[in-house]
Amino acid sequence: MQKVLFICTGNWYRSRLSEVLFNYYAMLGKIEWRADSRGMTETSIRGISPDAMAYLEKKGLHTYLDEPRDPEAIKVSDLEENDLIIALCRDEHEGMMRERFGQIPKFMENQGKLRFWNVFDVPPDMPSGFRSLFGSKSERPSQPAHSSSEHIDLAVKLLIHELSENQLKATMDPKSTGQERE
User: Total structural domains in the chain?
Assistant: First the structure.
């Protein structure tokens, strides 16, 4: 069984949603992959994002959520133990990965073991009075939760398709089965 690790900033919304969707679609597609998720930062947030849960409920997939757990921060061992790592937003996570792990992420990306997607976080909740004073700008790009969730869902489906095709090619390749063509 191969493993993919989804990473976002806090392991509360994007990476957790990716994990659940991936495991569901992998089960349907009968591919030999399993997903987990982590965050780049330690957080005191508990559980899973209401936006992620609402999306899973809307799709009828909330029952596929593994045992409820709190967000977890990534460790070096996570880099070693996973076959593929997907950071959900290059703009946010590339610098964080480099700061935390030095040149390891660049090496992993060159080896095809680390990929960056471009799924932005949901806008931070801000009282309307603050919005009018400070505008809608935040430190990082964002997108509405429904858009972000749909973006994640599509990206995960495309990843599942790619991994399924690769798995099929590997089973069809005589070198991988030890048989040679005559």
Answer: 1
